[in-house]
Amino acid sequence: MSTTRTENPVILGLSNQNGQLRGSVKPAGAPGGGGGGPPQLNQMKGKVNGSSQPAPPTNAVIKPGDDWKKNLKLPPKDMRIKTSDVTATKGNEFEDYCLKRELLMGIFEMGWEKPSPIQEESIPIALSGRDILARAKNGTGKSGAYLIPLLERIDLKKSCLQALVIVPTRELALQVSQICIQVSKHMGGVKVMATTGGTNLRDDIMRLDETVHVVIATPGRILDLIKKGVAKVNQVQMIVLDEADKLLSQDFVVMMEEMLGFLPKHRQILLYSATFPLSVQKFMNAHLQKPYEINLMEELTLKGVTQYYAYVTERQKVHCLNTLFSRLQINQSIIFCNSSQRVELLAKKISQLGYSCFYIHAKMRQEHRNRVFHDFRNGLCRNLVCTDLFTRGIDIQAVNVVINFDFPKLGETYLHRIGRSGRFGHLGLAINLITYDDRFNLKGIEEQLGTEIKPIPGIIDKSLYVAEYHSESGEEAKQ
Asked: Basic and acidic residues bias located where (predicted)?
C-alpha cells in the first residue's frame, strides 16, 4: 500500500446520528493509517444506487467480423494473488456458456476474467431452468453465479417483471442492484430496480408503473408491493434467495412462504448461502423441484484469511485497538460490536484517538445508512464500526482487516464477519479481542468451524494481508 497521505474528506452535516465521525488530523500513512480515505481505490468508484441509470454503452459500432473485445473498457487487471477458493476451477471461460455478446461485454468490463468455482457449477444449471441449492464460501462470486444466468434469460420483448432477487438487508440490495446494472449495461434496456424498507413507497409504485424486468428487494417491502397489486409477479420465471439461511430464519420465513404463494407454479428457485441450517432443508423439500445441489464448502473459513486472538480485559480493548491501528498496514477495516449502543460508543472513542471512522447499525435513519455504506465503499474512510447488519454479503474489495471488538456468540456469525475480509480469494486478517468470558466461546467456534485462531504475535507478517507483497508471479497463497 502506498504510504502517501490522502486528505481527509470534507463530510457535510457531521453529527452523532449520521454515522460519520472524524478524528483530528493524523497521518494516514504507515503503518496503520487510520486517518482519511485509503489510496488505490479508484477501481471502486461509482454510485451505489439501485435506481441509477446504467452507463451509456460505448459509441464504437461493432460490425460482424470485428474483434469486439478490443472495444471493451476493461478495468486495470487485478494482479493480487488469489487463493484456490476462487482459482480451483475446471478451466471454463464465460464464452463457453453461449451467453449473449452484450452480456459478455458487461461481464468483462466488470473485471471478471474467468468464472470462479461457484460460477462454473451454477451458470449452466441455472440456464437450463433447474432449481439450485448452492453452498459456497463468502466472497467467492455467488452474486455473479446467479445474476449472469438471470440476465441471460430476460426477454426484452416483454415489458413485465421476470425475475426477483431477495436479500436480507438494504445495503446488500443496493450492492446487488448496482452489480446487475453494471453487468447488463450493454444489453439494450434491461430495467433493474432496488426496493427496500425505509424508503418512499410512492416512488416504488411510480417506478413499477413503468417497465421493470428485475427487482432486487428486501422481503417485507416486496411482499407489501405484491399484496398491494403494484408488483405484478404473475410472469416471474426466476426467484433468487441470496443469503438464504438468513431469509429462511424465523425473522423472514413466514414472509417468504407467503410471497411464493403469489408466484407462478412453474418458476425457478435458486438458493445461495455459505451456511445451510435445517430451516433451509425444510423449505427446499416443500418448494423446490429436484434441486441441483452444489456444495463447495469442504472447509468453512476462507483460505486467505489469517485469524488471531488477543487476550484482553474489557478495559484494555480500546488501548489494544489503538495499538493495532498503529502497527497494522490497514487499507480498510471493519470493526464489529455486539450492540448498536457499543458501536456508537466505540466510534466516538476511535475519533477521540484521532482516527476518522464511520459507523452503521440498524437503528440509524435509512438515508444515513445509505450515505455511510456508499462513502465507505468508495474509500472516503478507512475504518467502519458496525453491528452484524454488515455481515451479509457486503463486498468491499479494499477491506483487508476485520476486528471483532466484541467476540460473537455463534460460529455462523463469526464466519460471516471474517468473510468481509479476503474477498474473492485475496488475503486478509481477522483479529479477535477475547476476554475471560469469551474463552469457552472461542474454543467452541474453533471446533465448530474446524479452524485455528492463533495467539496474536508481536509482529504480524505483512505478506499475510497486504496486497502489495503479492503478485500472480509469486506462489499461490494457502493452497
From this structure: 64-74
Fold type of domain 20-43+302-469: Rossmann fold (3.40.50)
CA 133, 139, 140, 145 torsion-angle sign: positive
Could you tell me which residue, 292 or 21, shows the higher pLDDT? 292
Distance CA 383, CA 28 (A): 11
DSSP string, 347-368: HHHHHHTT--EEEE-TTS-HHH
Please tell me the distance from the alpha carbon of residue 141 to that of residue 147, in angstroms, as a whole number: 10
**Which cell numbers in the block locate residue 271?**
438458493
* Structure confidence at residue 363 (pLDDT): 87
Burial class (CB in 10 A: 0-12, 13-18, 19+), 50: buried
Least confident range of 77-86, 225-234, 275-284, 361-370 = 77-86
Q: Do domains 20-43+302-469 and 84-295 have the same CATH topology?
A: yes
* Other CB atoms within 10 Å distance of the CB of residue 286: 9
Confidence category of residue 383, pLDDT binned at 50, 70, 90: very high
- Measured in whole angstroms, how far is the alpha carbon of residue 461 from the centre of its chain? 27
Predicted confidence at residue 269, as pLDDT, reads 96
- Copy the grid coordinates of residue 161: 417483471
Domain ranges of the chain: 20-43+302-469, 84-295
Which residue is listed with cell 441441483? 292
The CATH homologous superfamily to which domain 84-295 belongs is P-loop containing nucleotide triphosphate hydrolases (3.40.50.300)
In contact, 267 and 239? CB cutoff 8 Å: yes
First to last CA, the chain: 24
Taking the C-alpha atoms of residue 466 and residue 255, their distance in angstroms, rounded to an integer, is: 42
